[in-house]
Amino acid sequence: MKDHAGARLIKDMIFKCAVCLFAFISLLPLYLILYYITKNGIMVINWDFLFSLPRPIGESGGGVFNAIIGTVMLIILSCIMSIPCGIAAGIYLSENKKGKLSNTIRLCVIVLQGTPSIVIGIIAYLWVVAPLKTFSALSGGIALSIMMLPVIIKTTEETLKLIPYHLKEASLALGVPYHRTILKVILPSGISGILTGILLSVARITGETAPLLFTAFGNQFMNMNILKPIDSLPYRIFYYAMSPYPEWHSFAWGASFILVVLTLALNLFARGISVKWKIQF
Amino acid sequence: MKTKKKTASGGNRSEKRFNMALTASGGFIVVLLFAVFATLLAAAVASIKEFGLFFFIGKTWDSSTETFGALPFLVGTLCTSFLALLISIPFSIAISIFLGEYFKEGAVSTFLRSAVEVLAGIPSVIYGLWGLFLLMPAVRLLETQIGAPPHGVGIFTSSLILAIMIIPFSASIGREVITLVPGDLKEAAYSLGATRFEVIKNIIIPYARSGIIAGILLALGRAIGETMAVTMLIGNSNFLPTGIFSPANTMASVIANEFAEATGITASSLIYIALVLFFVTTVVNIIGTYVIQKVSIESSKEVT
């Protein structure tokens, strides 16, 4: 009898060790990725790399300044297009919890969130690039804004759901019209959650490459015109990584380092906001 | 009085406008999704007419003779995503048990949880870069050891990188459903003298089974649609893969590789593939989300 219990306890111990082992083995890739990006990336990064344009093959040196500017421009473009619509749709969902349209919208948000980024790239190509007959920053921004929408809608809805009903009742009881109640009472109380959602969605699209392959394309030169192809960090990494030149490979690592720092900073910032301004009632 | 009435009616009007704007942006999402589907369908029509359902069993993909069959890519996608799933399952379940049962809070738990979140936040192209310069030589070494042709790139390499990429998704969902298991069930088992392993095996896993499976399903949806890392590591070969180490192409990677230069029927066929991809990921996602919703609703009912 005692032996039997002992065997069970040993089994228990073995299982616990196995769980811990597997859980920490899966962190190994993370460690390796961060280690190699830091090791190979930090050597490349200097003033010249950050603030000069790419040079043609054969000339050494050069940098990714246009890619950084391009990424920032793409983010701004997609934010302009997706934030108003996303927040409005989120408010609609939180105000109309039931109903046919709400359920359909929720389903669409789920589907849109799961849609592969490459498919969204094709859509932006068919909608914008093909009619205009040129790759453009605008089409890249549209593709990325479609990817941002579901994240913003979901976080807005979930944040506004948490705001207690008596806040709204109090405002309405004071005679404040419904739309002002939403805009001046409900939205400001949920602003931290909404901001977190926006930052998380920006972090998500900052590293997206697939939708940019045939929309924003890539550009060796500095470009500020949204109807012309524009460079971006993830595209530059892809381009350099697939090239046969060792110097470009090291540039890819450098650009990766910038990109990882950027996305991690966005994620951390988002988390910081959600912790600091947590909704408490 | 008059002015008051005026503002009231003005308020009404702007209220109506406000409501309309909300409904419009909600409706816009529905229209957007419908437009996505319609655009894909319209652009793929030429290829659908030409090849019909034979598209799915055709083995050749040749733009010079304009014969297109997507079987190599279907096989490539199936192989990479299921292999990735197989590799990732033990790890993701271990993480979800670790975080959902053994270490619910505390420094270790916070560390592991934030590490998994960082893993989820790393862009796909960086996984590709890392795989290209570190995983590929390692796999090539393995291939020379076991006597396979040393491509380095191929289905196996892509599956490895995919597995790393999807672990965070199934792990975070798994953790959530495991924490949903009611405490009194576990306590009842403990009071009968069960060890922790027996509680996990006989109570937690059966109770959370459908949620865990849904998490794995959602991870599968991600693996099927994942593009950049796979494109960089799959080897870009338009023939049926002959083995686990052979280069291939997935549905997403063939689009990424060829769409920018494609015209006419080639482009249409690529969009046909995109349509299939869209359809498959949609179905997988809807089923997965539905199961998770059902699980969380059921457990919230039991609490109240």
Q: Can you identify the CATH class of the largest domain in chain A?
A: Mainly Alpha
- Helix segment tally of chain A: 12
Task: Please tally the β strands of chain B and state the result.
Answer: 2
CATH topology of the largest domain in chain B: MetI-like fold
CATH homologous superfamily classification of the largest domain in chain A? MetI-like
User: Which regions of chain A are unreliable across 5 or more consecutive residues at pLDDT < 50?
Assistant: none
- What structural class should be given to the helix and strand makeup of chain A? mainly alpha
Q: What is the H level of CATH, i.e. the homologous superfamily of the largest domain in chain B?
A: MetI-like
Low-confidence runs of chain B = 1-7
The helix content of chain B, as a percent range, equals: over 70%
Strand order of the largest sheet of chain B: 1-2
**Structural class computed from helices and strand pairing of chain B:** mainly alpha
The best one-word shape of chain B is globular
How does this model look, in words?
Chain A has 12 helices and no strands. Chain A has 281 residues and is mainly alpha-helical. Chain A folds into 2 domains: 2-44; 47-276, MetI-like (MetI-like fold), CATH 1.10.3720. Chain B is mainly alpha-helical. Chain B has 2 domains: 2-52; 56-303, MetI-like (MetI-like fold), CATH 1.10.3720. Chain B is built from 10 helices and 2 strands. Chain B has a two-stranded antiparallel sheet with strand order 1-2. The termini of chain B are far apart. Classes of the chains: A mainly alpha (281), B mainly alpha (304). The interface between A and B is large, with 85 and 82 residues.
